[in-house]
Amino acid sequence: MFNLFRAQLMKRVGVCMALILTFSWLSIPGPLAGAQAAAGESAADAHTTYNELKSGQRLWKDKQYKAPEQPTVYLTFDDGPSPLTAKVLDILKEEDVKATFFVLGEQVKSHPELVRRALEEGHAIGNHTYNHVYKELYSGAQTFWDQLQQTEDIIADAAGIRPRLIRAPGGTFGNFDAFYFYYLDQAGYEVYDWNIDSGDSARPGVPASEIIQTVKKGPFKNETVVLMHDGTGHDQSVKALPEVIRLFKEKGYAFASLTTEVQPIHFSSGKIKWSRSLTEVGHEQLLAEAGEHMRGLEAAGLTKTASAAGEEEGASLAIVPKGAGKAKDEPLLPLELRLGERQLQLDAEQYRMVHGLEEVPLRPLIEAMGGQIHWDGSERTAVVRYGGYAAEYDFSRHELRLRAGGSLTAVHLPQMELIDGTVYVPLQATLLSLGCRIADSSEENGHMLVRASMSGGFVVSPLY
């Protein structure tokens, strides 16, 4: 990315160089073009945006959020997973309460099974950066962005999801400037602060009784986000949790996990605690990376806001799994996929259920679509072709490259698996990204039946 970006800069000052060595056979739009495309801006507009952000003005995409029908509390736990997370999950399960865990990448590497368990039990996972070191994270937006991507990759490896929920270590007050918010918004993330701090990290060993009394002070809003911690050393937070839950139950609150439908809480700006600066060139680079991330979400059909009763089917696939799907001990049904006049039938042993989502083998799916697929063993890459489009699932780099009309989009660590020589991809997300419109799915005559209309084009999903 850096070399491509440098090439764009040299072109702008009239220096002609050829830096595309590794990917010389691909046509890849440069970062500056990607940045402007991401924001839909001309060069002049991009310059204006940079100056507005530099002045401290926060700029946002137009979005719609859904207010809950009754007062709702969102319990959130930061800095895990740790051995204490298992105890938190036990309490939440006993109380029939859903929560959100903002996890650190370095902790996920040590306890991936706890992330998987949280997802299986219906909780949401958010990204809390890799190491929680303030002086690194707030030295500049690029470092913060890099830590988010590092953690996102780790979570994807551990649990097969890429969260869009973000929490800044220490909160955004005094740490985030307008640039930080802007890049995350452009990339399709949502940043969540809180309106009740339990005070469990005010100092080491805050007693459970003090945590409970702090929470009792409120404020108790229609949508209340409570900050707690499940990292090492927060045994008292675990001890206080049942009483915190009882408090909100007595006040008539519903409990829910955060999703991208929930209106985010953002702290006011405050005086930035850190000395940093961002050049216009650096701004263009970061905006390009944010735009690339957003294009991956759009290609996967994951940028729509999921509505009630699943009106936008697949809108939040693989982002915040809800624990839906069959129980572990419930056998899968044979799967029948009807693609217009074409059909694909898979026995229960031929596909997988992962976090409530069907994963199917790529080859029979593509062939049922009328496309072609070839496995290049030397490159460990599955090459898919359909009309004038191509996609390459590269397991040596763990990357998906999408090509159409002479342009290319590369997505690092997409959700794809290679098991005993078979490439598996999530069914619904793949169908959506292929341009197919899913009509309905139901159980009929002992089969799981999915109906979808065929598309005229072919765009393979990054499968975030």
Task: Estimate the mean pLDDT confidence.
Answer: 80
Q: End-to-end distance, in Å?
A: 20 Å
Given as residue ranges, the uncertain stretches (5+ residues, pLDDT < 50) are 1-35, 304-328, 456-464
CATH architecture descriptor name of the largest domain: Alpha-Beta Barrel
* Biggest sheet features: 6 strands, parallel
Give the total of beta strands: 21
Tally of structural domains: 3
Molecular shape: globular
CATH topology assignment of the largest domain? TIM Barrel
Radius of gyration: 23 Å
**CATH superfamily caption of the largest domain:** Glycoside hydrolase/deacetylase
Number of helical segments?
Answer: 14
- Helix/strand-derived category reads alpha/beta
